[in-house]
Design brief:
With 223 residues, this protein is mainly alpha-helical. It folds into two domains: 62 residues; 136 residues, NAD(P)-binding Rossmann-like Domain (Rossmann fold). The chain is 60% helix and 4% strand. It has eight helices and two strands; from the N terminus they run ααααααααββ. The protein has a two-stranded antiparallel sheet with strand order 1-2. A hairpin with a 4-residue loop joins β1 and β2. α4 packs across α5 and α5 crosses α6. The chain is elongated and about 80 Å long. The N terminus is likely disordered.
């Protein structure tokens, strides 16, 4: 620090304020370019939308410019979600997907649970009670549930397939009980999906959600 500073030529120095101001000018200029481009694209889309509305016989102004502008602003994050109804899922099963899930080691347990849950609903409709709800009838309910499950498998195009005997037995032994932590978890998942649909934010699950509490594993089956 005490050494004499060597002689040097004076150089022009720019203050930090000058640098910031120049950067701000660049930023504002760039912002205006993007705004102009966005406005141009919004107008082009508005014209296109009006042409389509005319073609389908609707009022060209039925979709407001503000709505189109919002659409443009969020277009990168938009998703089209299409779902099959329960009626379609039950009456017109996608056999190829069902077979793939059933034979896939990672998805077979979830598929077994799905089929068993449908079989339980059907058995409950026939006997006006859930299987295994009475301890004295568990041994009788196991073959009943197995027969109903085989019928569900056949309707889904899985002729000759069979479910794990252990799962059938456990489903009856379970007796329709509701374990509080599992019920809370499923309720949380359901409420989360409702919020997605109501607020129209984030992407809802695209199929049937199956939670396997034994392995603490959840999966979505697109059926």
């Amino acid at each position: 620090m005490e050494a004499p500073y060597p002689p040097h030529e004076a150089t022009e120095s720019r203050s930090a304020v000058d640098t910031v101001l120049e950067e701000q000018r660049y930023y504002v200029s760039l912002q205006k370019i993007y705004q102009a481009k966005a406005e141009f694209e919004c107008l082009a889309l508005e014209h296109h939308v009006k042409e389509i509305l005319k073609q389908i016989g609707r009022d060209p102004d039925s979709i407001s410019r503000a709505y189109i502008k919002t659409f443009c602003k969020n277009s990168r994050k938009l998703r089209i979600c299409r779902y099959r109804s329960f009626k379609e899922e039950f009456s017109s099963p996608i056999v190829s997907e069902i077979q793939r899930y059933f034979n896939d080691e990672d998805c077979s347990y979830a598929m077994n649970f799905y089929i068993l849950l449908r079989a339980v609903d059907r058995l409950a409709a026939n006997y006006s009670r859930l299987p295994g709800i009475f301890d004295s009838e568990i041994d009788e309910d196991i073959p009943r549930l197995k027969t109903v499950a085989a019928s569900v498998l056949s309707e889904m195009g899985l002729n000759g397939a069979s479910l794990s005997q252990d799962l059938v037995t456990e489903m009856c032994r379970f007796g329709g009980a509701e374990i509080h932590p599992v019920a809370a978890f499923i309720g949380g998942v359901a409420s989360q999906e409702v919020i997605k649909l109501v607020t129209k934010q984030f992407v809802p699950l695209g199929g049937t959600f199956i939670f396997n509490g034994i392995d603490l594993k959840s999966q979505v089956l697109v059926l």
